[in-house]
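Structure first, sequence second, as always.
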């Protein structure tokens, strides 16, 4: 018995067959210069966030487990200099990239693209001795895959309690690994089919303030590499893993998504160039509100000078960064605070900035921020478009009678409001702990397409951790 809601023709190309063929045949000449430059910038930003996390001693469990897994000396374990298996290295690097929640975000898919692409590029690229050009092309394929797979069902995974980065990231990782391993098209399709059965990543951390979300990209990158290896060893997977009746979208997003929603415009419309580089180490869904405050209020202000703050928020954002209200007013953990709009907005008003140092145990204990957070009123507004690319609007009322109202059209860092080169380098320098090293690493990354391999890039990254 057939169900006419679902395509049944085996002759119709599936999303994975199109993705795999495109990635297999992709060359650097086919990648627009601005897309290649954007990808290099994102890889560089990811290296910076990974180093910053390692410098703070974050992701220690992943590093420890990766070291214990060991295996053949295929790839560098960042922060230690040890060499472990590529899947183990990817587990640790993915966790490091995402540990501070300072890594990039694609607004349409609400995914942290670099956190799954970079670990796979580094681990498998080093394992196979890939050239810089081959690593760059594989990265482009991975970025397009993760953004398109998640963006074909905007917010649908999050609405079901799943982390879209984890769900779509495992397939992107498999595609990157397949390209770097030189797998043929059919084997790459099998890798994607296998990867789909490993997709997951629960958002239940929001209920407790735990940091399991940090692990999601590492687990996705590790699983994607394993999927590619299984396919290379002869295991197969369903080509209809994305749009099939029991595929990724039906099972995990409760949605029917045709193959074209993922692949239309592939190689013509580049999602790789539409990824936001974060100026704040916190959930992307609150960034427009933070920018609105910075644009409207002379900062810092005395916490007792503010009578109230009204902030407009997209409904999809409110569920994640504003509710439940008691937990958002008094974050239980440092990671919890990164998902609290009232608390983060209060910290911005009091300190004048939101940086890595905003989210510490000492900051959580500050009564002034907590008291001001209680005076933040959230107004849910049904803005058109996706939650991560909507306006930020605030009204701040002071006890002296002043009322300041303002906003921004969208948060900073994205393609329509990009960070300046100086702001980007300042973020990189802060993450690396050295302006000089940031300039050197940026210059090396800019010439990635000419590099014989990844050794110099990895050497400089390790230098920043010594």
């Amino acid at each position: 018995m057939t169900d006419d809601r679902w395509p049944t023709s085996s002759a119709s190309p599936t999303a994975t067959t199109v993705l795999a063929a495109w990635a297999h045949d992709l060359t650097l000449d086919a990648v627009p210069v601005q897309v290649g430059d954007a990808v290099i910038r994102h890889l560089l930003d990811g290296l910076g966030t990974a180093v910053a996390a390692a410098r703070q001693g974050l992701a220690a469990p992943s590093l420890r487990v990766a070291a214990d897994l060991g295996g053949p000396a295929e790839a560098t374990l960042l922060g230690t200099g040890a060499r472990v298996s590529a899947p183990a290295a990817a587990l640790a690097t993915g966790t490091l990239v995402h540990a501070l929640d300072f890594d990039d975000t694609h607004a349409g898919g609400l995914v942290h693209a670099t956190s799954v692409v970079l670990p796979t590029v580094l681990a498998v690229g080093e394992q196979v001795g890939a050239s810089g050009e081959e690593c760059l092309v594989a990265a482009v394929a991975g970025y397009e895959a993760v953004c398109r797979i998640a963006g074909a069902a905007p917010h649908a995974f999050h609405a079901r309690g799943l982390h879209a980065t984890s769900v779509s990231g495992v397939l992107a990782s498999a595609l990157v690994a397949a390209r770097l391993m030189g797998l043929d098209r059919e084997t790459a399709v099998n890798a994607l089919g296998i990867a789909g059965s490993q997709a997951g990543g629960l958002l239940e951390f929001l209920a407790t303030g735990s940091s399991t979300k940090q692990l999601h990209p590492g687990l996705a990158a590790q699983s994607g590499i394993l999927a590619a290896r299984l396919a290379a060893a002869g295991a197969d997977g369903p080509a209809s893993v994305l749009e099939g009746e029991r595929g990724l979208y039906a099972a995990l997003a409760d949605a029917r998504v045709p193959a074209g929603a993922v692949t239309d415009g592939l190689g013509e419309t580049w999602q790789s160039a539409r990824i936001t580089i974060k100026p704040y180490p916190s959930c992307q869904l609150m960034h427009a509100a933070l920018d609105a405050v910075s644009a409207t209020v002379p900062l810092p202000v005395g916490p007792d000078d503010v009578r109230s703050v009204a902030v407009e928020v997209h409904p999809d954002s409110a569920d994640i960064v504003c509710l439940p209200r008691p937990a958002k007013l008094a974050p239980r953990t440092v990671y919890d605070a990164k998902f609290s709009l009232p608390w983060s907005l209060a910290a911005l008003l009091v300190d004048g900035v939101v940086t890595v140092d905003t989210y510490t145990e000492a900051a959580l204990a500050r009564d002034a921020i907590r008291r001001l957070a209680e005076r933040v009123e959230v107004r849910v507004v049904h803005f058109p478009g996706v939650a991560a690319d909507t306006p930020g609007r605030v009204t701040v009322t002071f006890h002296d009678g002043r009322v300041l109202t303002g906003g921004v059209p969208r948060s900073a860092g994205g393609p329509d409001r990009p960070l300046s080169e100086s702001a980007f380098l300042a973020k990189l320098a802060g993450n690396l702990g050295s302006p000089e090293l940031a300039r050197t690493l940026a210059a090396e990354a800019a010439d990635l397409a000419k590099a014989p391999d990844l050794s110099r890039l990895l050497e400089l990254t390790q230098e920043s951790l010594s």
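Margin note: Confidence is low (pLDDT under 50) at residues 1-9.
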